[in-house]
Amino acid sequence: MTGTGLGMGAAEAGTDWPLVIRRLRLVTGLVLFTYVTTHLLNHAVGLISLEALEMARRGFVWFWRLPPMTVALYGSLWTHLGLAFVALYRRRSLRMPPWEAAQLLLGLSIPPLLFIHILGTRVAHTFYGLEDLYTYVLLVQWVFSPGYALQQVAVLLIAWLHACIGLHFWLRLRPWYPRLLPFLYGAALLVPVLALVGFGVSGRTVLLMSTDPAWMRRMAQAIRFPPASAADEIDRIDTALKIAFFGLLGATLAARVVRDWLGRGKGATVTYPDGKMVTIQPGMTVLEASRTAGIPHASVCGGRGRCSTCRVRLGHGAELLAPPTAEEQKVLDRVAAPPKVRLACQIRPTQNLEVAPLLPPTASPKEALRRPNYVAGAEKEIAILFADLRGFTRLSEHKLPFDVVFLLNRYFTEMGRAIEEAGGRVDKFIGDGIMALFGIDSSPEAGAQTAIAAAKRMGESLAALNRALSADLSEPLRIGIGIHLGPAIVGEMGYARATTVTAIGDAVNTASRLETLTKEFQAELVVSTALEDVAKVDLSRFERHEIEIRGRSQVLPVRVVKRLSDLP
């Protein structure tokens, strides 16, 4: 269930109501999740015996009927439900991702299924003196009214699924969550399965024992069934609660229609990079504007202001927006957002505004973590390495496709490992070539030194690979590497899932040119003296040449290394 901010008025009043609502929803949801979990585990004890089930129930009931826990449980239930109606009303658009819609619909289906269970156990115990033993519940659901058994199973599974969806989309923003996900996923499946099996085993036991009149008389004395008039009254209360629930739901939806009708033509216009313009209603967020217009917009947390993946760069009209709340600013600081970048789920334009979403619609939770400043685009002096296999086309033309793929994957694995162990970053694989970057997260000196070290390691790894594949190769694999140091524009570039941190610029083109020169010099490495000087490595014993680079007015001095094994 999704809630969003209350806008400028709340900020001026000094209370961040959106934050209060989000935290209240989280706390009440966790209380309810704890109750459902313990309830399901109580069901699972039925796998042992009916006596064990009753013993576990006594502990379960003792804990949840302590006065503080009773207040926490029922307070959380009604608060969570109330916040759901508030969130439903405050939504300016009912367009939402499937997971969010599923969570909302599942959550709204719980109360009408749950009312009769609460009335038939806790209320009947409190006001009619009924002893709501687990055996009583099983008698009602397996003997007296079997339809209730299906309803009980449905409400528990729906509540469990609703809670698991909410927990997943809350926790997946934590960097440690992917490591625990397999175990949590297993628990999410195992708990309800054990509960259903325990419920079935204990229910069948009660069904068989109910054929014994003496046992039924003992149970009647222990349970103290209320009179028929009390059962009728409970049914009337259940009906009244359902009418009230669906009446409130209908009133909420009707209020939305009236609000939207009154706000027609009064909103601002949001303009997107492709020129598309969306007229929004007063109070609508930019994220809701995107959803209303069917514009794909990333939002891992569903618009709760936690993940930062919906962030946008503001254009004309930015100066008219209210400043970010403390909670929004905290999220922006976490990802080191530059000026004029805001969360689309938190800004409610009152005047025309230009925006540009910064992340692809398919953004994953990792995009919500703090990222280096250069990801958004920066000029840095880095070392760039290009490597290419020599004669691989001739080598592979008589091999089966499977063998070619196998050979390339072995080569890429060894070269990629050598680059990363030296401290570099594999940028991309191009055919049988490799581009790698050094010094993105460090200084030019460190980048230059690690680039030389990577070349040395690549030579050693290639020699080891040739020895391992000697029986499968007609001739050893040979490599040509070019390395240059210079200024380049670094940033995350691409489209949708095909985005990566890469570099462009004259330095990149120069490094590529040096790699091709290895063919002319019949060498394994050509490195610019610009990189040699910064790396403070002595390459004076290798040949020095001055070459012309297309687009450069000055010649470029380089060192030519015939064999990588000769590197210091």
Question: How is this structure best described in words?
Answer:
By secondary structure, the protein is of the alpha+beta class. The protein has helices at residues 8-13, 17-44, 50-64, 67-90, 98-128, 134-144, 147-171, 177-209, 213-223, 228-262, 286-292, 326-334, 392-396, 401-422, 444-468, 506-521, 529-535; strands at 269-271, 277-279, 311-314, 341-343, 353-357, 378-390, 425-430, 433-438, 478-495, 498-504, 525-528, 543-547, 556-561. The protein folds into three domains: 16-261, 3 helical TM bundles of succinate and fumarate reductases (Up-down Bundle), CATH 1.20.1300; 269-368, Roll (Ubiquitin-like (UB roll)); 374-566, Alpha-Beta Plaits (2-Layer Sandwich). The protein is built from 17 helices and 13 strands. Strands 6, 7, 8, 9, 10, 11, 12 and 13 form an eight-stranded mixed sheet that branches. Strand 1 and strand 2 (277-279) form a beta hairpin. Helix 5 packs across helix 7, helix 6 crosses helix 8 and helix 14 packs antiparallel against helix 15 (444-468). It is elongated, with a radius of gyration of 33 Å.
The CATH topology of the largest domain: 3 helical TM bundles of succinate and fumarate reductases
| Biggest beta sheet attributes | 8 strands, mixed
Quick one: overall form?
elongated
- Gross CATH architecture of the largest domain: Up-down Bundle
Helix/strand structural class: alpha+beta
Helix content: 40-55%
Rg (C-alpha, Å): 33 Å
Q: Determine the number of helices (DSSP H or I, runs of at least 4 residues).
A: 17
Name a few traits of the molecule.
568 residues, alpha+beta, 3 helical TM bundles of succinate and fumarate reductases, Ubiquitin-like (UB roll), Alpha-Beta Plaits, 3 domains, eight-stranded mixed β-sheet, five-stranded mixed β-sheet, elongated, disordered N terminus
